[in-house]
Specification:
The complex is a heterodimer. Chain A folds into four domains: about 10-190, NAD(P)-binding Rossmann-like Domain (Rossmann fold); about 200-420, N-(1-d-carboxylethyl)-l-norvaline Dehydrogenase, domain 2; about 455-595 and about 650-685, Alpha-Beta Complex (2-enoyl-CoA Hydratase, Chain A, domain 1); about 600-645 and about 695-784, no CATH class. Chain A is about 45% helix and about 15% strand. In chain A, the strands form five sheets. Chain A has an eight-stranded mixed β-sheet with strand order 3-2-1-4-5-6-7-8, sandwiched between helices. Chain A has a seven-stranded mixed β-sheet with strand order 15-16-17-18-19-21-24, sandwiched between helices. In chain A, helix 7 crosses helix 14 and helix 21 runs antiparallel to helix 29 (about 750-765). By secondary structure, chain B is an alpha+beta fold. Chain B has three domains: about 10-140, Acyl-CoA dehydrogenase/oxidase, N-terminal domain (Butyryl-Coa Dehydrogenase, subunit A, domain 1); about 160-285, Butyryl-CoA Dehydrogenase, subunit A, domain 2 (Beta Barrel); about 290-585, Butyryl-CoA Dehydrogenase, subunit A, domain 3, CATH 1.20.140. In chain B, about 55% of the residues lie in helices and about 10% in strands. Chain B has 18 helices and eleven strands. Chain B has helices at about 10-20, 35-55, 55-65, 80-85, 105-140, 145-155, 285-320, 345-375, 380-415, 420, 425-435, 445-455, 460-480, 485-510, 515-545, 550-570, 570-580, 585-590, and strands at about 65-70, 70-75, 160-165, 180, 190-200, 210-215, 230-235, 235, 245, 250-255, 265-280. In chain B, the strands form three sheets. In chain B, strands 3, 4, 5, 6, 7, 10 and 11 form a seven-stranded mixed β-sheet that branches. A two-stranded antiparallel sheet of chain B has the order 1-2. In chain B, strands 8-9 form a two-stranded antiparallel sheet. The longest helix of chain B has about 35 residues, at about 285-320. Classes of the chains: A alpha/beta, B alpha+beta.
């Protein structure tokens, strides 16, 4: 793991092995830190550690996986709070994640305080109980070491961590936790005040409640509601009802109750209809959401067919879903959120009743629950996956427009929003990012130490090279950064052109190159749409040229006289994986999903992916890290590529050799560029390009063996007819083609030629074209 | 004088020799359509067209339809001709035998339709519209509707219409105002509204007229998604198959048109007329779309029919008319002047007409054969391919063949000189009749937009594959064929132009739809020319194998026509390509006020 700061936290304990506690423990293990996981002793249990042990076992099977690598489970030491409290003695941080009952928590704190070492930090994962209440009556020493660390579910994937401290909390304790969560756990730590629901849930629950009750009041269907409170506002398309189905209906009444119990009657919650009787009825009948029989939506399998149904909010009866058709929805598509918010139909009324209210509430939370608007935005982006936070949304809609909407609806205009009249909450001045404060003054927004964002650099810099799909930037200290900019960061001729033009620029003016971008995915691979269209119009020479160009450009990167560091995050698939494979080193975000997935669309890696995987497994054999000889690398590469293996984390990618064991991993997405840049500079000192590998491949005998294996899978029904065709082409490339045998040395270019030929032949196959089309249209592979 | 003889020899060439007519007999329902049977059908159709329909073409044009007190009369002789036509079973030629039809494949029907349009395009409108109504009810109607209407429409004793256009909307049917309200009985609707440009809306040829009407239900969503299809008979059908009381639909007036004057184009007023829903509520446009391929193909064939008739008239005249001498000296010294056919420019016109006509026939026949596969093939893969292909090529057949119809009809007039311009010779009628085919069933501008907007990008270009892949493979195959060296390279070059233009439009059109719109018409023409070029090379291949037989002259003429097409017509692609690649900027930058 790469980290700038040495952490004082060497060992962690989590008490409570429920979904949240176990998930937190798993994620601490993901950071490579040993962790103790304790729960109560179940009544009459033979195995007194059953709860914690079962939790770990369950997590090993869960999807999405809480562990970044299965071996991380070994870092968790399980036990129970009756027999193993002494395990806390050497822990630097103890996280309490037990049931939300004050008495239980407080008695646990007393026990913890009895065994914990001096200077250790204790935190609660509570989502509802105020900090002051939690520590009431506890010793001052405990209070000084205590804070709230509120994780979001699932802890591995949700990047938000809400931190609440008391005036008594030691500053260095808060700093230690913040740094650990930031660097080691990769969280964005948002500081909240000790107010009910903190930031994300306070706002989120109001939003969901308004979404549910206003839909019924205004007579909208759940489909209409989700179409409005979704995409048009940059909110995931699950909207309100789909999201509640996802997180579970049973959470709603419970959280609402605690929220209403803790907030003053002047709060916006009390202006809403809070009648959740339909939800309660559904819970009683087992309709608790996707984990249960269904929720607001369900799949009705009666009669054999799968019919998606939605509940009628007025009658409580299910009926087949109907595609929403409202003028306001269409208006939102063309005119954006503002057009939807000001539309006169019931969709517009609903948007006002839910979103205008929610945005106003967000403004009311500063400074009550958060010190700055950025904290609220970050909380909603990372805690609820909103594309833009509420204040970014207000900027988009226009503060004045929102004020008018609120007035016309008879809703109060919060002070902060009034302050923003005629202004925006964010602005950029001279390359500096500013946010509006409660006093109406703009203040500079400062990134945490060691965080470098390309977006910030781009505010003032001009690209050194630019095409429609990629750009080259100067990121300082003699390092250049290649950024993909196309749709989903897919790779097309313009990306290749940009790389081609960038190489001499970097060579002349820079020490090293980093390949990095801030899209949600590093790259989803070659632009399949372009390729399919070209194939459909039989533009074969154009396609052949593109394949060859890609090989040349990637090879040129590999042997360029400067080090190249790829810094992937999110998906790095197909051609996106191949560029990573051609880099001298990689600094990967821990959440990198990397693989050569070409066979899924009936193709094989054609930009040197086959070649690089062969070289990596051969190298591993030579270093005694994998079996030696010509066949094992071929078999390994075949195994990996023929089933389109995708590593589900950077750690897994190291096992598959998509990443080298020496490649770095960064937990915090915001720190990736800085880490990659540091790695690039470290390599630049006395850099010499790698030597070209030479291949000795088994030829026909090897090919036959691989084909036999595939035939076996075919008989078992695990491979489809076209899988067989694609596998045969892959086997032929990896074994060196028709004429190879172990006595013949093949160069990189020889293998690249084999890749090209196989790729071009496969792309003419109608079954391959059908796969590509299916992938483009459904996002899923076609098993033909 | 305009003359017409069914081009049976060339049809046989297209149908049997080029497309391999025995192929369709593998399709269910087409088993009996053997080449011999088809030959016999075409011969009989030719006789009817030559002897019954063609003689009424000019008189029908002169007299036109008349409208009096809500009654429309077709010109003299039409009623009798229709009876002969109907009794011969021609109305139901392509209809299902279950309803009394003959079940002949589309590709045969296309050739017969061509003959009908050559002989008398106005007349052809009446059975043509009936067939459209037949298809709609057959595909979307209830069993009861099918039993009530299909046997009558197949027989021809009743006829049909399609009532889409309203005074304020034609292309944009989402604006339709005609409404349907609940009627007296369950399932009955009261249709109220005005439809215009309704071909065969009212006439005296049949005992009943079955209108298919687009209207809105009371709960219809706005726009194109709220339109439903209704069947509204002129007379209420009775249980026993006879006609009952008059329904609330009447003709308000008929249009006075440029051409097809013997076809009644009516304003139809629906005043709480009783109708029944055909297909699902609000899905009327979908029903229309599924019938559109066949209907548009039919209009393309009208262009083709006019081309053939005009060509025949022109050749006849060019041989007979003597004026001046050949440029190289007298060719017929025994006469006072040479026939004008000796002149290069007259030959240019005649060969242009011939090459487009025969090329257009190959194209139309090819697409209609694939339409048979799209409708009837049991192998889902093959059927899908055919559906894709027909979807892609339909706008091209409609747009290009009707544009060429007009061009060829104009050349026909030109060959006649001053005599072409006067009515007596019959050549100017073709110009007038051909003109509407470029407009109705979606103007040719709309066809071009359909091609670049809907068809090009569909499934990331999958429709294109059905044309581009066979053509690419064909070019690879003939590239080394010495026999075809005059054709292979030019075809390959034009194909590359088509590929480049396709890629350009697809890419530019994504970011700026005006780019696709600006290129559309030229692109459609480019596509059509390349498609015909491909068919002409295939025709040459067939012809070269037959140069030693009894019909050597026929095949030699094929090869010469193909050469002419390649030398004189296909090169237009160069100019079209340049125009396409120039983009939309100039035409869009002009200030509206400056027009």
């Amino acid at each position: 793991m790469t980290s700038k700061t040495e952490t004082p936290i060497k060992k962690v304990a989590v008490i409570g092995a429920g979904v949240m506690g176990a998930g937190i423990a798993a994620h601490v293990a993901n950071a490579g830190i040993p962790v103790v996981l304790l729960d109560i002793v179940p009544e009459g249990a033979a195995n007194r550690n059953a709860i914690a042990e079962d939790a770990v076992q369950k997590m090993l099977k869960a999807d999405p996986a809480p562990f970044m690598h299965k071996r991380n489970a070994k870092l968790i030491q399980t036990g129970n709070i009756e027999d193993h409290l002494d395990l806390l003695a050497d822990c630097d941080w103890i996280v309490e994640a037990v049931i939300e009952r004050l008495d239980i928590k407080q008695s646990l704190y007393a026990k913890i305080d009895g065994v914990r070492k001096a200077g250790s930090v204790v935190s609660s994962n509570t989502s509802t109980i105020p900090l002051a209440t939690l520590t009431e009556g506890l010793p001052d020493g405990f209070k000084a070491d205590f804070c709230i660390t509120h994780f979001f579910n699932p802890p591995r994937y949700m990047r938000l961590l809400e931190l609440v401290t008391a005036p008594e909390t030691r500053t260095d304790a808060a700093t230690a936790i913040t740094e650990f969560c930031d660097h080691k756990l990769g969280k964005s730590v948002v500081v909240c005040k000790d107010r009910p629901g903190f930031i994300a849930n306070r706002l989120g629950i109001l939003w969901l409640l308004a979404g549910v009750t206003e839909a019924r009041r205004l007579g909208l269907t759940v489909e209409e509601a989700d179409a409005i409170i979704g995409r048009p506002f940059g909110i995931p398309k699950t909207g309100v009802f789909g999201l509640i189905d996802l997180v579970g209906l049973d959470l709603m009444p419970h959280v609402l109750k605690s929220m209403v119990g803790a907030l003053p009657e002047t709060d916006a919650f009390f202006q809403l209809d809070r009648d959740l009787s339909l939800v309660e009825k559904m819970i009683a009948e087992g309709y608790t959401g996707r984990k249960g029989k269904g929720g607001f939506y369900r799949i009705n399998r009666a009669g054999g067919a799968k019919v998606k149904e939605a509940i009628d909010l007025q009658t409580g009866e299910y009926r087949p879903t109907v595609k929403p058709a409202l003028e306001s929805i269409d208006a939102g598509k063309s005119g954006g959120a503002a057009a939807l918010l000001t539309h006169s139909d019931k969709g517009g009324r609903y948007a006002r009743a839910v979103m205008a209210r929610t945005l106003a509430y967000a403004a009311a939370l500063v400074p009550e629950a958060a010190d700055e608007v950025y904290a609220v935005d970050e909380a909603m982006r990372l805690g609820y996956n909103w594309k833009q936070g509420p204040f970014e949304l207000i900027d988009k809609i226009g503060a004045d427009t929102l004020i008018q909407v609120l007035k016309s609806e008879g809703m109060a205009v919060p002070t902060l929003l009034e302050t923003a009249a005629g202004k925006t909450f964010y602005k950029i001045e001279g390359g500096t990012r500013l946010q509006l404060g409660t006093d109406g003054q703009y203040r500079e927004m400062v990134r945490p130490d060691g965080v470098v964002m390309l977006a910030d650099i781009k505010l003032t810099a001009k690209p050194l090279v630019k095409t429609s799909s990629a750009a080259l930037w100067d990121i300082g200290d003699g390092v250049a950064c290649l950024e993909f900019t196309g749709k989903m960061n897919s790779l097309d001729p313009d990306v290749l052109k940009c790389i081609h033009k960038s190489i001499p620029v970097v060579e002349q003016g820079f020490k090293a190159l980093v390949i990095y971008n801030e899209g949600s995915n590093f790259s989803v691979g070659a632009n399949l749409g372009l390729a399919l269209f070209a194939a459909n119009m039989a533009a074969w020479s154009q396609i052949e040229e593109l394949v060859e160009k890609g090989q040349q450009v990637y090879k040129a990167l590999k042997y360029a006289p400067f080090p190249v560091v790829a810094a992937p995050s999110g998906m790095a698939l197909g051609g996106g994986c191949e560029i990573v494979l051609h880099s001298d080193a990689v600094q990967a975000h821990a959440e990198t999903y990397i693989g050569l997935v070409e066979v899924g669309v009936g193709l094989i890696p054609g930009w040197g992916g086959c070649k690089e995987m062969l070289a990596r497994w051969t190298e591993a054999g030579a270093a005694n890290k994998a079996p030696k000889g010509p066949m094992p690398p071929v078999a390994k590469a075949f195994e990996t590529i023929s089933v389109a293996t995708v590593a589900k984390s950077a750690a897994e990618a190291q096992s598959n050799l998509f990443l080298r064991p020496t490649d770095g991993v960064t937990m915090n997405r915001y720190r990736l560029l800085a880490d990659a840049k540091a790695r690039a500079l470290a390599l630049a000192e006395g850099y010499t390009p790698p030597e070209e590998p030479v291949f000795r491949l088994p030829g026909e005998t090897g090919r036959v063996a691989l084909e036999m294996a595939v035939k076996g899978f075919r008989k078992l029904g695990k491979a489809t007819p076209h899988d067989e065709v694609v596998s045969a082409a892959l086997a032929s490339v990896l074994t060196g083609g028709e004429t190879a045998d172990m006595t013949v040395e093949l160069s990189e270019d020889d293998v690249l030629e084999l890749e090209r030929e196989a790729f071009n032949t496969l792309l003419r196959h109608p079954d391959t074209l059908a796969r590509v089309e299916h992938m483009l249209e459904t996002g899923k592979p076609l098993r033909n | 004088m305009a003359v017409y003889q069914a081009p049976l020899r060339d049809m046989r060439f297209t149908y049997r020799e080029l497309l391999g007519s025995d192929k369709v007999t593998e399709l269910p329902g087409c088993e009996e359509a053997t080449p011999d049977l088809v030959d016999a059908v075409l011969e009989e159709a030719g006789k009817v067209c030559e002897s019954v329909l063609f003689p009424l073409n000019r008189s029908g044009d002169e007299e036109g339809c008349t409208f009096e007190n809500g009654v429309v009369r077709t010109p003299k002789g039409f009623k009798e001709a229709y009876e002969t036509f109907r009794e011969g079973g021609w109305v139901g030629m392509a209809c299902d035998p279950d309803y009394g039809g003959q079940g002949l494949p589309n590709c045969v029907n296309t050739l017969v339709e061509e003959m009908i349009c050559s002989a008398n395009m106005s007349f052809g409108m009446y059975p043509g519209l009936s067939h459209g109504a037949y298809k709609a009810i057959k595909r979307f109607g209830t069993d009861e509707q099918k039993q009530t209407y299909l046997p009558k429409l197949t027989d021809g004793i009743w006829s049909g219409t399609m009532c889409l256009t309203e005074p304020h909307c034609g292309t944009d049917l989402g604006l339709i105002r005609t409404k349907a309200e609940p009627g007296a009985a369950e399932g009955e609707w009261k249709i109220t509204g005005t439809k215009i440009f309704i071909s065969a809306g009212e006439h005296d040829l049949t005992e009943n007229i079955i209108h298919l009407v687009l209207a809105r239900l009371p709960d219809a969503p706005p726009g194109i998604k709220g339109i439903s299809l209704f069947v509204v008979p002129k007379f209420m059908p009775k249980e026993d198959g006879s006609v009952g009381a008059r329904n609330g639909v009447a003709c308000g007036s008929i249009e006075h048109k440029m051409g097809i004057k013997a076809s009644a184009t009516c304003v139809m007023n629906f005043d709480e007329a009783t109708g029944w829903l055909v297909g699902e509520p609000h899905k009327g446009m979908r029903a229309m779309f599924t019938m559109m391929n066949a209907a548009r193909l039919g209009v393309g064939v009208q262009g083709l029919g006019i081309m053939e008739a005009s060509y025949q008239g022109a050749v006849d005249y060019a041989r007979e008319r003597t004026q001046g001498r050949a440029l190289t000296g007298a060719k017929a010294p025994e006469q006072k002047a040479d026939p004008i056919i000796v002149h290069p420019d007259v030959r240019r016109m005649l060969l242009t007409m011939k090459a487009y006509t025969e090329g257009g026939r190959m194209l139309a026949a090819w697409i209609s054969q694939e339409l048979d596969y799209a409708e009837k093939c049991q192998d889902p893969k093959r059927r899908q391919e055919a559906e894709d292909f027909v979807a892609l090529m339909t706008p091209i057949v409609k747009g290009v063949l009707t544009d060429l119809g007009s061009e060829v009809a104009n050349l026909g007039v030109q060959v006649y000189g001053g005599h072409g311009y006067i009515r007596e010779w019959g050549m100017e009628q073709y110009v007038r009749d051909a003109r509407i085919a470029q407009i109705y069933e979606g103007t040719n501008g709309i066809q071009a937009l359909d091609l670049v907007g809907r068809k090009l990008g569909a499934h990331t270009g999958r429709y294109l594959r059905r044309f581009f892949h066979p053509l690419s493979e064909y070019i690879d195959r003939i590239m080394d064929d010495d026999e075809l060296e005059d054709f292979a390279l030019p075809l390959a070059k034009q194909f590359v132009r088509l590929q480049q233009a396709t890629g350009y439009i697809a890419q530019k059109g994504l970011s700026n739809p005006n780019e696709a719109g600006a290129a559309a018409t030229d692109y459609m023409r480019l596509f059509g020319l390349v498609a015909m070029g491909y068919l002409w090379v295939r025709a040459v291949e067939v012809a070269k194998q037959n140069l030693d037989g009894d019909e050597a002259d026929f095949y030699k003429a094929k090869i010469t026509t193909a050469k002419f097409y390649f030398e004189r017509l296909l090169p237009q692609t160069g100019a079209l390509f340049a125009a396409i690649m120039s983009g939309s900027r100039t035409m869009m930058e002009m200030d509206e006020a400056a027009f």
